[in-house]
Amino acid sequence: MASALTLIAARRHAIDRSLFEPTTLQGAIDRLGFVQADPIRSPARAQDLILRHRVEGYHAGDLEREYPALDVEEDYLYAYGFLARPVWNLLHPRSHSRMRTFEQKVLDTARGLGEVHPAALEAHLGRRRVINAWGGYSKATTKALEDLHYRGLVRIARRENGIRVYKTVEPPDQGISPADRLCALVMVIARIFAPSPEKTLHAVVARFRHLGTPRSIVKDLVNAGELHRETIDGVSYLWPAGDLVRDEAPRLVRFLAPFDPVVWDRARFEHLWGWQYRFEAYTPIPKRIRGYYAMPMLWGEDFVGWANVTGAMGAMGAMGAGGAMGTAKKKLDVKVGFMDKRPPDRDFTRELDAEIARMATFLLPDR
């Protein structure tokens, strides 16, 4: 690399590599590799808010509607979400431990039923309850399906009124060693968060240690030139080998989900953009600073503040900059806040209005 990494270069690279030119739904997931999911709708689920910037003409709910026809899997990478099929293949098998008797019964029953709704299993296996990972109670059949899903023996075929419908699947026939799978997974994570603080990358890939020693793999990739390392202000950054983006980011206003890859790493966000962003949905109301679901607001290549968006659209109506958009039925309310002061140029006002309009169209219930 000809020149040292700078904050500006790191920002531009993070924006350009993640917020690429909008493409098809399958193409966007393939390029991202992973889209984090979250059930909170304020104003839409995280996966929809992430995809709207990267998929041409995307509307809230498109992923769930089109999922059965996509080459995509639901599973857990560094969080729960939607994975491109090649990435999902790298995850399995996760465990070679012996299944419990009840899990085997559930698997056998699911094979006989084809697609299986958790409720359908109750007629065959009863309604016994078990303690779940959060200390509460879940139906034993549902818990067993979740465990089989983690093992890669069942997949999410679709959702019915938000409930996962499962289907048995043969685990990927691995033609590569665990070490090579680990190496590939490290590169997947490195691409998602490029450029990533080395400390963050180590923390995320540590969950794949059942495949080998992630820290050693990262070191080997750096030594081989597959990962490039440079330091800004004492912070070591890693990214897949290749030139950093040097061009200025487009002068657009974008509201990003709290789980968007650009803002997911809060330590990187604070270092590159100079202020703390926290997800406050689970913060007591008196202690909230920016709002229940405040979305970082990107203007060009700088995060100038945040936006809280509530309501849903029934029909398009008149709007004002940074204010509300009225409809005959409902109201989309957009409240924005700024870290310093509102950008004074007219371009910002115009682009803020454009982003509010895009959000309104994205939330329309009908195409």
How would you describe this protein?
- The structure is a single chain.
- By secondary structure, this protein is of the alpha+beta class.
- The protein folds into 4 domains: 7-91, no CATH class; 101-168, Arc Repressor Mutant, subunit A (Orthogonal Bundle), CATH 1.10.10; 183-240, Orthogonal Bundle (Arc Repressor Mutant, subunit A), CATH 1.10.10; 253-363, no CATH class.
- It contains 13 helices and 15 strands.
- A hairpin with a 2-residue loop joins strand 6 and strand 7.
- Helix 6 packs across helix 8 (140-151) and helix 9 packs across helix 11 (214-223).
- The protein starts with 6 loop residues before the first helix and ends with a helix.
Task: State mean pLDDT (0 to 100 scale).
Answer: 89
The helix tally amounts to 13
Largest pleated sheet:
5 strands, antiparallel
Structural class: alpha+beta
**Distance between the terminal alpha carbons, to the nearest Å?**
46 Å
Which runs of at least 5 residues are low in confidence (pLDDT < 50)?
Answer: 313-329
Strand order of the largest sheet: 11-12-13-15-14
Radius of gyration, rounded?
Answer: 22 Å
Number of strands: 15
The coarse overall form would be globular
The helix content is 25-40%
Kindly give the count of domains.
4
N to C succession of SSEs:
HHEHHEEHHHEEHEEHEHHEEEHEEEEH
Measured by DSSP, the beta-strand proportion falls in 15-25%
Key descriptive features of the protein:
367 residues; alpha+beta; Arc Repressor Mutant, subunit A; 3-stranded antiparallel sheet; 13 helices; 35% helix; globular
